[in-house]
């Protein structure tokens, strides 16, 4: 096309698809220069390939081939080890070149909400949440150098909501701490500004702030991280 079309409504887009203007701008390649044709001419036959990985799928193509087979590693259900399986060429090409909606659906199906509801609208709500988490993961990996998987993003979101708004109860007596003082807290919880109370413990531990060699008794009760009184506000900002 000579220039990109912008439509204000869906009706304008549908009218443009069936208009003569679009037919005049379309370029049809002859069979002899089509990249998907062979030497004998254009072949419009279709190939049906059933393929079973974790579940059976069926792909139909009119230009790709089944062989040569590609060896890939897949983990079987209820087993920790990975096994080598043979994958058809068209499945391998599909996985490499898929994008847009297909890639988004593939990422959503990796980790989904398993809670079932009785209401008809519950699957719609859980699907929207899963799609939002996938979009968050994609944008995060595009912006940051440190890549994170969808499982890590979901875990961080869950921890942030579990700790959000919780009031820290000051215990009377000598508490027993079995968790190490070096505990990495996610930024969402660390900087939420809710429930971070400084307290003291009996044993000295090293301050977890960078470039600080102090060994204070003070720590954050919500994050459970040992901090000096001077480092406490800087750690939570």
Note down, in words, how this protein is organized.
With 237 residues, this protein is of the alpha+beta class. 32% of the residues lie in helices and 14% in strands. It has eight helices and seven strands. Strands 5-6-7 form a three-stranded antiparallel β-sheet, with no helix packed on it. Strands 1-2 form a two-stranded antiparallel sheet. Strand 3 (70-75) and strand 4 form a beta hairpin. The longest helix is centred in the middle third of the chain and has 22 residues, at 122-143. Mean pLDDT is 73; it is low at 33-43 and 176-184.
Short description:
The chain is an alpha+beta fold and 237 residues long. The protein has helices at 10-17, 20-25, 89-97, 101-108, 122-143, 150-163, 187-190, 231-235, and strands spanning 47-52, 56-61, 70-75, 82-87, 198-200, 218-220, 225-226.
Strand order of the largest sheet: 5-6-7
Question: Which percent range fits the helix content?
Answer: 25-40%
Give the helix/strand class: alpha+beta
How many β-strand stretches?
Answer: 7
N-C termini distance: 52 Å
Low-confidence stretches: 33-43, 176-184
Return Rg in Å: 28 Å
Order of helices and strands: HHEEEEHHHHHEEEH
Range of strand content: 5-15%
Main beta sheet, described? 3 strands, antiparallel
Number of helices: 8
Domain PiggyBac transposable element-derived protein: 51-134
Protein name: PiggyBac transposable element-derived protein 3
């Amino acid at each position: 096309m000579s220039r990109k079309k912008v439509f204000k409504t869906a009706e304008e887009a549908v009218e443009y698809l069936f208009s003569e203007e679009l037919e005049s701008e379309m370029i049809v390649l002859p069979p002899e220069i089509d990249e998907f044709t062979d030497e004998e001419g254009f072949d419009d036959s279709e190939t049906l390939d059933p393929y079973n990985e974790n579940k059976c799928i069926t792909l139909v193509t009119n230009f790709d081939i089944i062989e040569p087979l590609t060896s890939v590693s897949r983990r079987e259900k209820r087993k920790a080890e990975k096994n080598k399986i043979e994958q058809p060429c068209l499945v391998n090409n599909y996985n490499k070149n898929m994008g847009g909606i297909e890639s988004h659906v593939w990422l959503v199906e990796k980790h989904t909400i398993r809670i079932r509801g009785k209401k008809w609208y519950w699957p719609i709500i859980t699907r929207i949440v899963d799609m939002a988490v996938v979009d968050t993961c994609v944008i995060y990996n595009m912006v940051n150098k440190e890549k994170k998987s969808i499982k890590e993003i979901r875990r961080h979101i869950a921890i942030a909501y579990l700790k959000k708004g919780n009031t820290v109860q000051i215990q009377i007596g000598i508490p027993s701490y079995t968790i190490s003082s070096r505990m990495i807290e996610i930024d969402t919880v660390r900087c939420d500004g809710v429930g971070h109370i400084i307290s003291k413990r009996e044993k000295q531990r090293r301050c977890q702030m960078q470039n600080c060699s102090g060994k204070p008794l003070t720590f954050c009760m919500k994050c459970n991280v040992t901090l000096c009184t001077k480092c406490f506000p800087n750690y939570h900002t």
